[in-house]
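During the no-cost extension, the postdoctoral fellow (Dr. R.K.) reprocessed legacy sequence entries with the updated structure-token encoder. One reprocessed record is reproduced below for audit purposes.
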Amino acid sequence: MGIFLRLTRIPLSSSGILSQCPHHNTLSPAVIRHILAGAPTRKNHSGRGPDHPVISAAPLRKPFSKVTKEDLSFFRNLLPGRTITDPDLIRSSNIDWLRTVHGNSEILLRPKTTEEVSEILRHCNKRNLAVCPQGGNTGLVGGSVPVFDEIILSTSLMNQVITFDNISGILTCQAGCVLEKLSHFLEERDFIMPLDLGAKGSCQIGGNVSTNAGGLRLLRYGSLRGTVLGLEVVLADGRVLNCLATLRKDNTGYDLKQLFIGAEGTLGVITAVSILCPHKPKSLNVAFLGCSSFQHLLETFQCCRGMLGEILSAFEFLDASCMKLLEKHLKLSNPITESPFYIVLETAGSNAAHDEEKLHKFLEAVMTSSLVIDGTALWSLRERVTEALTHDGYTYKYDISLPVEKIYDLVQDMRRHLGDKAKNVVGYGHVGDGNLHLNITSPSKDPRLLAAIEPYVYEWTSQWKGSISAEHGLGLKKRNYIHYSKHSEVVALMGNIKALLDPKGILNPYKTLPDNMHR
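Re-encoded structure tokens follow.
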């Protein structure tokens, strides 16, 4: 029951990704890293307010105005060549990444500056025109696409780096900068972004902040609520809120930027971001390990935190069902002994010899205690789980935060609860921050299966005082389930804030807040 490990120091290329071996369909360092970088009244068991009706995911259209010829003329004069009305060009912006939400917008606006965004929103607010802010459109809860005919406001052309301070590591950029391009920009200057996501090639920093995206580096560098130092935001009436600070410490009044982090574009449109970026680590090691039980996996995590300490940068897991999907649909072979659970562990530091010594001692410890049954030095096996799932049929995705010891209990309970109604029930995620990605597949969209999943999954999560959305947001799909994670008084205050900042409710309507709170 010893561990087999070929410890490898991973070269830090400018992309941070190694290529898949061209000669073998195995889980190379790149692949593993890329895999890791979804009615009637029901009883709410959370104790967080009274029972709340579970409402259909399809809301009714609010009484917003329709776009007129005069509106189009205004937008074309403001954005010459960047006011898109061709249905073929708009189609991809009307459909979410999972292809489960389809909007009917007839106009796509592509501003380049904060001033243009301000003029757009000032006009839309005056005319009572609903607006759907959109970044890279990589969200999984329907928050980035229109529900009806909302005007799509794309930040894709707002893609300039404004400043970078190579002493403090503070980057200031426009909201439409693609995460991967920011990563390249920083790596050339010996820094990295504090977050890393599987969608980094498409997602934008403004959308990341708007959804408070987590990702693979949260264990090491914390959430965006800590690394984002400042924001520039355009409010619904066109006012520009300049909170674009570049200070680590500023204790003068309310920290207003926090209102917009995770608000999913419902309170204002983020146009620029200041973010604290860490130095690029000089030493990076990765290990892919197998465990015989989830309890052993948790004990390995405890041992890992104690022995690796400051150099531990990621600790991810996936179950055997995920591995089978990778093997079946992506033709990737398991590089280690078949195991019920797998761990992807990364260390990042400044001294290769020091880091490798600590990692070897950790591996010796888990080998001696038989916590780990096999392993190899690889990193690329978690983000591609999402890709494999798309080949397995229609996928119901849930992004849950739970006490770490309860993470896999939900997967097992869901399998028992659904029985043969589901094709596959799999779990993977971030052990370091208690984030489970629960995915349930079926041959096609199945209303009966969905009725068996929801609200059971939310009731289960609430029972253990978890969150129904750890990092994906609420969007369209989860808006009416917010009470499973938030007390009624908290939700009511959210509604008051929305009414204060966006009294007409034009910003990303039908998202985040429950239907009975939208104005």
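Residues 161-276 form a domain with the Uridine Diphospho-n-acetylenolpyruvylglucosamine Reductase; domain 3 fold (CATH 3.30.465.10). The mean pLDDT is 88. The remaining legacy entries will be reprocessed before the final report is submitted.
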